[in-house]
Amino acid sequence: MTSQFDLSDIETATLGHFLESGFMSPALQGLLPGRTVFGPALTVRMLGDDGAMLTEALSAAKPGQVIVIDRCGDLRHACWGAVTTAAAKARGVVGAVIDGFVTDRSAIEQEDFPVWCRGRSPITTKPRGLGGDFNVTVGCGGVSVRPADIILADENGVAVLDKDQAATHAARARKMQEDEKTILERLRAGETLAEITRSAKQPA
């Protein structure tokens, strides 16, 4: 399963110029600098210290998906580490977004696997099999995420896009990024930002 569109050149911060919703909490930060991933969400809901549902989800994952994990408020246990990273890469998963903590940071970096999370913890989840679910609507970073929603994550944060609107938003963002290059050139040539802004507002 792969995304229908190429979002590799789109910045979440550009989307933030014209969208107000769909952005996860800035507390979720990328472990690997300068990385961008995008793809349909494989959602997982995990309860407390029970890691069993992530095992099931990773076993069902398809290439190109981004794992999105709802930790249901758990701010103590790490649900992701060296083994889950290896399992995700083996299934072709391109990244993970976790509303919680990870462990084994050096192993994740060594595998060059992009992860966005709230931080690190040495206390891990266990395969208890007490509950949870995957491929259901979850909450992650304050945003509702449905299976197959398009996830775009980069150095600025994580955005969630409706799969039917993602291409339209990407086209608008791409145009804005091209326009920004012209603005930067004009600033370097000596124009002030106020002059550029006023000229943009004048009718053609």
Give structural notes.
The protein is α/β, with parallel strands linked by helices and 204 residues long. It has two domains: 152 residues, Ribonuclease E inhibitor RraA/RraA-like (Glucose Oxidase, domain 1, 3-Layer(bba) Sandwich), CATH 3.50.30.40; 34 residues. 29% of the residues lie in helices and 24% in strands. The protein is built from six helices and 13 strands. Strands 1, 2, 3, 5, 7, 9, 12 and 13 form an eight-stranded mixed sheet that branches. The longest helix is centred in the C-terminal third of the chain and has 23 residues. It is elongated and about 60 Å long. The chain starts with 11 loop residues before the first helix and ends with a helix. This is Putative 4-hydroxy-4-methyl-2-oxoglutarate aldolase. GO terms for molecular function: metal ion binding. It comes from Sulfitobacter litoralis. Its cofactor is a divalent metal cation; Mg(2+). Keywords: Magnesium, Metal-binding.
Give the gist of this structure.
The protein is α/β, with parallel strands linked by helices and 204 residues long. The chain is built from six helices and 13 strands. The protein has two domains: 10-161, 3-Layer(bba) Sandwich (Glucose Oxidase, domain 1); 166-199.
CATH topology-level fold name of the largest domain: Glucose Oxidase, domain 1
Distance between the termini: 45 Å
What does the average pLDDT come to? 94
Q: CATH top level of the largest domain?
A: Alpha Beta
Shape: elongated
Number of strands: 13
Global Rg: 19 Å
* CATH level 4 superfamily of the largest domain: Ribonuclease E inhibitor RraA/RraA-like
Q: Using the 3D structure, state the CATH architecture of the largest domain.
A: 3-Layer(bba) Sandwich
User: How large is the share of residues in beta strands?
Assistant: 15-25%
